[in-house]
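dude i think i finally got it to work??
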Amino acid sequence: MVFCTVVFDANAILPKKELFVKKRVAKFENVKEGTVIVATYELQNVSNRTITIEYVNPDCICTKYAIDKKEILKGEKAILKLTFDTTGRTGKQKLNAVIKADTETKFYKVICLVYIEG
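look at this
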């Protein structure tokens, strides 16, 4: 009699988790200083498994964020909004935010470009 033990990685046979970020760059031109702008990004789960957004990290404390859901079911979308107050700023501004998800691609970057009239 022969016994055999089979060990496998369940993640290796499951389909990959993929997130699609529609329009990764938001542009705002000729903004008056003092205006609060909101850049909106659509995050779509294009896989067959639930995706969890682990965190969103804007690169500046001047940028706030809100996301309508952290668990995105297959085929569903989440909306990410970055809010930037232009008070005290002029000229070109580039704001970045990194999204970490439990997907094959660990990090996603979105950008907000703003030109503030001075």
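Residues 10-13 form the longest helix (4 residues).
im so relieved honestly
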